[in-house]
Amino acid sequence: MITKIVLGLVVGILSSGSGLGGGFLVVPFLMQMGKDAKIAVGTSFLFVGLVAVSSLWAHSRLGNVDIKTGLLLAAGGIVGAQIGPQILQHISEVNFKRGFSLFLVTAGIWLFVTAKS
After folding, report:
1. Distances from the Cα of 86 to the Cαs of 39, 49, 68, 83, 91, in angstroms?
2. What are 9-52's pLDDT values in tens digits?
3. Residues 6 or more apart from 93 whose CB is under 8 A from it?
């Protein structure tokens, strides 16, 4: 229980500071704990949703929110969020792990290569 709370604290700090949401850290952690991919993904959204509300509040107080852009992105994201779980139902656990790993590595390389000082 303490491990989960500490992980939540660390991921909350990282996700609210980076805008990455935290699911990229929570999903592998939950899968390592023995949760299957579908449960790990669904549970991470509960975490991400609640942390996102808290992060939105904190960033709004600092004036760091472009409401129009956020709402436009959310319009597409809400539709995509209905499609994603349907796709996940047809992907094996092994293929999910491989695809998710590839995505994380690719995203990391892209961020590293495109970083500007």
Report:
1. 14, 19, 29, 5, 10
2. 887 777 777 667 778 888 888 999 999 989 999 999 998 899 88
3. 36, 37
